[in-house]
Design goal:
Helix content: 25-40%
Shape: globular
Radius of gyration: 19 Å
Order of helices and strands: EEEHEHEH
Largest sheet: 5 strands, mixed
Structural class: alpha/beta
Number of strands: 5
């Protein structure tokens, strides 16, 4: 008599990664949004990797170092200093892979924050923030 084995669930190809505690790592990203009348703005979003809590947001005319520092300082004032700051490799965020120490990296480094980046062309590293952009766009698209 042949014995039937129970079907096993297929293993997922992806693995969810979360930092173990709040303020262990924050993710910063900026996204462009088109306002009514065709005007464009850049929205900086800073989230806690552990909880996905939005620790700060900031709207600016462009993706600048000054705007990036503003949103980080806003979050630090409200929630304390994180251990790490994860960003992409953009010039306003963390150009270290281009051999340049950016102003934001120097700013957070002076506070004892380790600035880290994702691999180039791997947006899944900042996937939590990319997902947050979708939620924000859906919300903004419904506003008058």
């Amino acid at each position: 008599v042949a014995r039937l084995e129970p079907k096993k669930k297929p293993r997922s190809a992806w693995r969810r990664f979360v930092y173990p505690t709040p303020n262990a790592c924050w993710q910063l990203d900026a996204t462009e949004y088109v306002l009514s009348g065709g005007r464009k703005c850049v929205i900086f979003q800073l989230i806690d990797d552990h909880s996905r809590y939005a620790v700060a947001s900031h709207v600016a005319a462009g993706e600048t170092v000054a705007a990036a520092i503003t949103v980080v300082d806003k979050a630090i004032a409200a929630h304390g200093v994180p251990q790490r700051l994860l960003t992409d490799n953009g010039l306003a965020l963390n150009p270290s892979r281009r051999g340049v120490v950016g102003q934001l990296v120097a700013h957070v480094g002076a506070l004892g924050v380790e600035a880290i980046t994702g691999k180039p062309y791997k947006p899944t590293t900042q996937g939590k923030n990319e997902r947050f952009h979708q939620t924000l766009f859906r919300y903004l698209d419904k506003q008058p």
